[in-house]
Design a protein that fits this description.
Helix content is about 30%, strand content about 25%. The protein is an alpha/beta fold. It has one domain (about 10-25, about 35-325): UDP-N-acetylmuramoyl-L-alanine:D-glutamate ligase (3-Layer(aba) Sandwich), CATH 3.40.1190. Strands 1, 4, 5, 6, 9, 10, 11, 14, 15 and 16 form a 10-stranded mixed beta sheet that branches. The protein has a 4-stranded mixed beta sheet with strand order 3-2-7-8. The chain has a two-stranded antiparallel sheet with strand order 12-13. α5 crosses α6 (about 225-235). The longest helix has 15 residues, at about 290-305. The radius of gyration is 19 Å and the shape is globular.
């Protein structure tokens, strides 16, 4: 891809949460009580996390979202602005609280998360369409959506988005993809982890999270995951399947690119996928090709797991150098 003369913007449409993080010796099983070793509070929400990650990577970024008219909402807005994210399109809801996420993290960095959507659930398709019109998007811009807002917001994006800008949809939580097959509707580049990709394509997944094609055996050569990535790509305008420590697969235009991940010491995986998406959107807005952007996003996601919290380790471009940030 040729870099645009003026780098584009990232427009994130998504959720804003307050995160309550509990460090647990183990993640509790059903019916089990676990004593937490400690707790912390931070800022989260897929939309906000992705926007902050994109801004950290140097892209002019704005967020379309809703927060409550409460102290948590005011604090979240202040934090977004301090991170360089424009919040003109964030509405304050007088009748719903700011979203809340309770995050349980074990010593290996694995997590379980419960989200109370609050004001996020009241973002409307009309608000999204109006914001996209007011932003006067160009072909250099990249729009980023996710599944933590009502489905009508994703459908509105499909209908309101002009032909030029790129659109990335992080299909998490997986659920069911909206119908964007109607006339004049755009189809996004889909981003999902291996388990989400398997769910969305009707394929099964191995216990280690890699995708599998039903009952055809192991995935030692990656072919099952590659077929799942291709199946997901057919549901949108290409796909990126994230594989944790194994990196990512990019399936677009009939081509498959494997992106390795660097080895890092994992502290907390919370928000790594959001950092991946924010970095991917930022690099595309800066003119990188999709494989190049995905390589940077893999390195950014690996950097993100080295500290506690969804935004504990937000990489900047200078943090992502060397072979980990190059496509293979």
């Amino acid at each position: 891809m040729t870099a645009p003369s003026t780098p584009g913007r990232v427009v994130a449409i998504g959720s804003v949460n307050i995160d309550r993080i509990l460090r647990c010796p183990v993640l509790p099983a059903p019916g089990e009580t676990v004593l937490a070793a400690g707790s912390a509070q931070g800022f989260g929400g897929k939309g906000a996390n992705q926007a902050v990650a994109a801004a950290a990577m140097g892209a002019p970024t704005c967020l379309v979202a809703r927060v409550g008219a409460d102290a948590e909402g005011r604090a979240a807005l202040a934090d977004l602005r301090a991170a360089g994210v424009a919040t003109d399109a964030v509405r304050t809801d007088p009748d719903a609280p700011t979203g809340l996420a309770v995050v349980l993290v074990d010593p290996a960095g694995e997590n379980s998360i419960v989200v109370v959507p609050g004001a996020n659930a009241r973002l409307t398709g009309a608000e999204v369409a109006r914001a996209l019109a007011e932003l006067a998007l160009t072909s250099a811009d990249t729009v980023l959506t996710s599944g933590e807002v009502p489905e009508e917001c994703i459908r509105a994006t499909a209908s309101a988005l002009p032909a030029g800008p790129r659109w990335i949809h992080n299909a998490a939580p997986a659920g069911v993809l909206p119908d964007w097959s109607g006339p004049g509707r755009r189809r996004p580049l889909l981003v999902a982890n291996a388990v989400e990709a398997a769910q969305l394509t009707g394929r099964s997944a191995h216990a280690d999270g890699t995708a599998a094609a039903g009952t055809d055996g192991s995935d030692t050569d990656g072919s099952d995951t590659a077929r799942t990535a291709a199946a997901l790509a057919a549901l949108g305008d290409g796909a990126v399947v994230t594989l944790g420590a194994a990196g990512a697969l990019v399936s677009a235009g009939g081509a498959l690119h494997r992106i390795p991940a660097p080895e890092v010491a994992v502290v907390d995986t919370t928000g790594a996928g959001d950092v991946f998406c924010g970095a991917l959107a930022a690099r595309l807005a800066q003119g990188a090709s999709l494989p190049e952007a995905a390589a940077t996003a893999v390195a950014a996601g690996a950097f993100a797991v080295t500290a506690l919290g969804a935004r504990g380790a937000l990489p900047r471009p200078a943090d992502l150098t060397g072979p980990a940030a190059r496509a293979s």
